[in-house]
Each structure stands twice: as structure tokens, then as C-alpha cells.
Amino acid sequence: MTMNGDMLIGFSSVRGTEGEQRAFNPASNSEIADPVFGMGGSAEVERAASLAAAAFDSWRNAPLAQRAVFLEAIAENILALGDELIERAQAETGLPAQRLQGERARTVGQLRLFGKVVRDGHFLAATIDHAQPAREPLPRADLRVAKVPLGPVAVFGASNFPLAFSVAGGDTASALAAGAPVIVKAHSAHLGTSKLVGSAIQKAVKDQGLPEGTFSLLFGAGRKLGEALVSHPAIKAVGFTGSRQGGLALMRLANTRPEPIPVYAEMSSINPVFLFPHALANRAEAIGKAFADSLTMGAGQFCTNPGLVLAVDGPDLDRFVEAAGAALASKPAQTMLTPGIFDAYCSGKQSTGAVAGVTKVAEGEPAGERPNAAQAALYVTDAARLLASPELEAEMFGPASVVIRARDFGELLEVVEHLEGQLTVTLQIDAADVADAKRLLPTLERKAGRILANGFPTGVEVCHAMVHGGPYPSTSNAMFTSVGATAIDRFLRPVCYQDLPDNLLPDALRAANPLAVWRLVDGAPVSPV
Ligand code: NAP
């Protein structure tokens, strides 16, 4: 496919006139010559948002089977891009081809999962309470509730997953599945990848005969276009993955609109790993080695990277630190996504290393002459230092982590209580640790969206039971997940219908159940067959 640098607004190719930008190759530290992307501004936001608003009623009322076929068609079109997509993403992100192939499979799988979710119809949460005309002292009306989409959704793709959390990623797939039109603001770190995937979605919209405004892709330099998008009255919700600073800025903007809207922002998390005494005594070396593998995977550029390790001090913790350090020492430096992310990683390490009482105990292989290549690092300090130094809780986005030595279990509990909200917490436990783990669990449930045992948090399965979310600041809204089937709930709201005649009700609530969905009828689940 010959790619140009125009935006995709509905079915049109639109050249932005608010400046030009080329994509950047972080591995060679140089611009990619072709194409030159034209940046958009508020005029393009207006055009895309008007189209999305016009498409909304028609798209949300499209048959569920058509919605599912559309999501599956996007998946097919992405696969049809073949090696061109992988090569472009590799050039723009520095991520290895194998990782990107895996991410493409995940993206395609995610779209297909939402196809299934739409066909099942569970997400509509159809619920019927029949009228009770003879009820005393007052009769009850016929009450029925089902979910409807909020309206057009703005999506800000993530830099660290150029496919699975970007143009056709989880936010877009779940919003489209909900029946919402989507406008994506492409991440400036992978403009060409965004354009390729955006074209795959545009083709599916055209091929399926869907309304033009179902999908648009915009490019914007600086903050202007993103701000105009979040401020536009036609936009009813925002999906974002990125920095805490960026997420908070968009939340503030959304809250000061004449009509405030929800921003589902996934921001920063340091994903504490707890090493319990018996697990450490039995397998400190194995845990240390596996930890180093998890920390350095993908140059540590995962929102679930294990950035903090906590344990009661002692010789077994020393064994862990030694093993993790030895494993890290042979880890090669890896290219990071952008020079900005590399600089932020370096200054994060510098700030951590500068805290009095923090010792750097291990480093990965140096980068040598390679530009933007992250050298892994492991730091150690004590619990009192962590409690007194908020900067040690800041996310170092990259392959660096801090080990915290607690005096005793009581001090460990104090640290846990002090921690900010997290996407994940991990317990390394053996059978004899279960009683201690049980003491920690109630606090951990208040702090994190996912609690895992004897694994590592990197690797987020896309399935029905996944939660990729958590209390602030890991996300802006702990009630939802941005990965997995229930991510669709972020873009839906319930509408209750009281005493409406059958032919005015949405299909999910009609007497004959024409969609054949599971329903809760008078308090009992009823299967469609
Ligand atoms: P980012 O700077 O927050 O950018 C994410 C997206 O939001 C980009 O499209 C960006 O536009 C846009 N944006 C950011 N602030 C905005 C604002 N105030 N108004 C309008 N649009 C705004 O994140 P990033 O570039 O991906 O990475 C920077 C840092 O974020 C990393 O160093 C890391 O600390 C953190 N990060 C965290 C996660 C996570 O999952 N927790 C993931 C990725 C990054 P542009 O494209 O024009 O910049």
C-alpha cells in the first residue's frame, strides 16, 4: 500500500494544514522520510465530530450481527496489511518484529473477542421486572432496562503498544462494539503505523456500508488538536493510555466542559511485587532470575512493569538481590520508543539514584553508541526511606526497579497502606506463606485492580475475567477495566423503560426476545433457549 500523510475523516482523505511532521526511527535516531504527515487542527476536529454525531443513531441501531461482522472485518483487514505493518511499526518504535507480530495477533484476537461479546448480547444487561397490577398497597409498573452507548468516543492511542492499545486497540474495539463512533488522535510516536491501521478500519466501514462518521483518524502536533477533540460537544467519552500528566490534563479539560464527560485514563503504576519469607527461602534465585526477565521485557515499557519489590530484610532477600542483579548484568540495552521516553527514563533513574540511602546494586549491559537504548538498573533501599520519599513511588517507565527492605512484617504492612493505587500487585508465596498473605490481602484489594500469585504482572490476557485497571493514579476510574470483554462497559449507560408498549421497546427487551440474549427476568436469569 502506498501511504500518504493525510488524515482519514470519514471516507475522505484530508491534508492537515497546521504544520507537518515526519515519523521518527528511535533506533537510528533519525526521521523517516516518507510520508510527510499533515497535522490537523480544530477545523478537522469539527468535521470528524460532526460526522460522528450524524453517524451515531444509525450505527448504534445497526443489528448486533452487523457490528460483530464489522469488528471481524477490521481484524481481517489488519492481517491483510501483512509485513508492511510490522516493518513500519518496527521502524517507528524500535520494538522487535516478533513482539509486534505477537501484538498484532493480540489486536486481532481482541477485535474478534468483541465480535463475540456483541453477538452474545450480555453486555446489554437486559433486565425485565414485569408489572404487578394487583400488588398492594400500590401496583407496580412494567420496568425494563438495557444499556445504550454514550455517544462518539475520542481515543488517544498509547506509545508503548502501537497496535494493541492504539488505533484499533482495546479502546477503539470496545467503543465500536458498544455502538459508539470513534475518533482516534494518532500517537505522534507511530504516525505511519496509525495510518495503516486507520485505513484498515476505514475500508471495513466502507465495505460494510456503515455510516461514514463511524470512524476517523486525526493527526495533531502539540496539544491543540487533542484539546479541541476532548472539548468538542459531540464527544461523550474519552479513552486514553499514557502519562499521568497527560491523563490528568485531559480529565481537567473534560470536567470543565459545559457538559463534563468521563475520561477513562490509564496512567501510571509501579506494580509492587511482594516476596514472602518461605518463597524466598525456597527459591530466591529462581524468583530473582524470573523477575529480571519480566523487568526487562520490551525494554520495561509496560504499564504492568514490576517497578517495586518488597520483602522483610534478611539473608534470603540478599540471595534474591544477588540473583536478580546477576541476571540483569547480562541483559542488553534496548531501544526505547521515543527519545522523549528515553530521556524521561534516564532522568527517573537519576532522581532515584540521588535519593539519600538508595543504592544502585546492579545494571544491565551499557548501550555503548546505540541511541535511545535503555540500560536496566536495580536499586535497593529500606522501608523508612520509601515512606519518607514520594519520588521513589514515581513510575520509571523502563527496565528499572527498586527493592525495599522492611524491618519486619509490621513495617511491610505500613508500606502497603502507604502505597498509591496500582494496576497490579504480585505475591511470591509458598504454602507456608498463605497465612501472612491473607493478612495483606484486604489492603491489597483496596490498592490494586489485579492480584496475582507466583507469576509476574507483565502480560495482560485479553479475556472475560481480566481487569486492567485500578485505583488512582493507575487509572482515572477504578470501576472499570481497559482490557478484556467488560472494557465495553465504559462506553455504555443504562436506560429504563417504564410501561412502554412492546413495539416501542429495544429488541433486547421485547417479549419475544428477538436478539436471543440472556436476560434477568423478575430477578432470575433466563436463557434465550
Ligand atoms: P503521553 O505524553 O501522555 O501521550 C499520550 C497521548 O496523549 C499522545 O497522543 C499525546 O499527544 C496525547 N497528550 C498527552 N498530553 C496531552 C495534553 N495535555 N493534551 C492533549 N493531548 C495530550 O504519553 P507517551 O508519549 O506515550 O509517554 C510519555 C510517558 O508516559 C512515558 O515516559 C511514561 O512515563 C508514560 N507512559 C505510561 C504508560 C502506561 O501504560 N502507564 C504507557 C505509555 C507511557 P502527542 O502524540 O502529540 O504527544
From TrEMBL:
Q: Which CDD domains does the entry mention?
A: ALDH_KGSADH (cd07129)
Residue stretches in coiled coil: none
Highest taxon in the source lineage: Bacteria
User: Domain Aldehyde dehydrogenase: where?
Assistant: 19-470
A Pfam family matched by this chain, by name? Answer: Aldedh
User: Mind listing the UniProt keywords for this protein, alphabetically?
Assistant: Oxidoreductase
InterPro entries assigned to the protein according to its UniProt record, in alphabetical order: Ald_DH/histidinol_DH (IPR016161), Ald_DH_C (IPR016163), Ald_DH_N (IPR016162), Aldehyde_DH_dom (IPR015590), Aldehyde_DH_Superfamily (IPR050740), ALDH_KGSADH (IPR044151)
By what name is this protein known?
A: Aldehyde dehydrogenase (NADP(+))
Q: Which organism is it from?
A: Paraburkholderia guartelaensis
